Amino acid sequence: MRDVTATLVGFARTLRAAGVGADAQRLQTMVRALDHLDVLDPSDVYWAGRLTLCADPDDLTRYDRCFAAYFAGETPRPGRRQPPPVVIMQSAAMPSEGTQSGESSDVRVTMASATEVLRNRDVARLSAAERAEVHRLIALLAASAAQRRSRRFAPATSGRLDPHRTIRAVLQRGGEISRLHHRTHTHRPRRVVLLVDVSGSMAPYADALLRFAHAVVRSAPRSTEVFSIGTRLTRLTLDLRHRDSDTAMTAVSVAIPDWSGGTRLGEELKEFLDRFGQRGLARGAVVVIASDGWERGDAALLGEQMVRLRRLAHRVVWANPHKARPGYEPLTAGMAAALPAVDDFVEGHSLGALERLAEVIGRA
Questions:
Q1: Which residue blocks in the chain are alpha helix, DSSP H?
Q2: What CATH number has the domain spanning 192-362?
């Protein structure tokens, strides 16, 4: 059973994924507030988090939605001001009325919900209702792309001297130097490229991974590219720009001609690099490959293309759903050939794993 602090840490992680700045300092403030409140009272927990974790009026709607999804597994109705119900669980029986005040009782109380239970469940083993709930929570994820320094400059109070602005100011004042102007490099989101394996061996996970890709596209539509790989390379970026996730998945299902087919990772990666990557999509980008590494083609070709990709990309991330299985080792020929060129080897089997993947993308 998780204790209250661990549950609140997971809640803060969910808020950050939705765009609320629930950092560690704000979380500590909420924990200190709950020391003086009743953690079994949903209203106390709701208002303690709302007053400490939210810093902007736009955060309030996100907070209500995440609170309802995390603690109760439901979406609050428009205009609803009362906090959603919380599922309370006990790990030991509460003392009965006959218990004397001097007797010690080990009572551990924690808050949990079906949503929290689903967070670490393998998506391939979920029921239809559980899968629908996980898909709804994936749509709430927000993978903020890492920033990179641009070649463009912007005025600044300090830093590199801006000779052009300084000289123009001197000429405007008749040759008198009044101040020195400075400039600094601007920053822009680093491009994120996702290659999602839709072959037969990835069929239980492809839908969830594509929904994750939809969430990333919605977070940064101008700096995100998505492709499906299997026996053919298919560009899905435009299909995933629909705001509604179900509409986007319907468009994707029509666009992918090789769904649940074979696997030719080496050939498809070579095609991506020849057509798109070498020309600029992979240069300085965070490239995420979501695949189990089963390769029916030449594993040596996959290894060569991964080395080529590593030279172009800023960082290469490989998400393998099978990595979470006990005793897993990357022994398949494709996975063994690709790993030397991978910077981050992560899981991709559950909602919690996708949250961690979003964090890896954000800090790349």
A1: 4-17, 24-34, 42-53, 57-67, 114-118, 128-138, 163-172, 203-219, 245-255, 265-272, 299-312, 333-338, 351-362
A2: 3.40.50.410
Two structure tokens written together for 272? 């991506």
- Looking at residue 206, its amino acid is A
Unique residue bearing structure tokens 């969430």: 215
In the predicted model, is pLDDT for residue 268 greater than 90? yes
What average pLDDT does the structure give for the chain? 83
Contact 319, 348 (CB under 8 A): yes
Tokens standing for residue 149: 């320094």
Predicted confidence band of residue 139 (pLDDT cuts 50, 70, 90): confident
Pair of tokens at residue 363: 């800090």
How crowded is residue 332: how many other Cβ atoms within 10 Å of its Cβ?
16
| Nearest by Cα to 269 from 168, 342, 354, 205 | 342
CA dist 190 to 28, 82, 210, 289, Å?
A: 31, 40, 20, 17
For residue 186, the one-letter residue type is T
Count of Cβ atoms closer than 10 Å to residue 174 Cβ: 6
Q: What is the pLDDT of residues 40-72, one digit of tens each?
A: 888 889 999 999 999 878 788 889 988 888 887
The answer to whether 192 and 143 are in contact (CB under 8 A) is: yes
Three-state secondary structure call for residue 186? strand
Of the CA atoms within 13 Å of residue 306, those in its CB half-sphere come to 24
Task: Indicate the domain borders of the chain.
Answer: 4-92+107-118, 151-188, 192-362
Here the tokens at position 253 are: 């299902």
Can you give the pLDDT at residue 96?
39
Better-scored residue on pLDDT, 240 or 144: 240
This prediction has a pTM of 0.64
What's the helix, strand, coil split of the chain in %, to 5?
50, 15, 35
Q: How far apart are CA 63 and CA 54, in angstroms?
A: 7
The enclosing H or E element of 195 equals strand 192-197
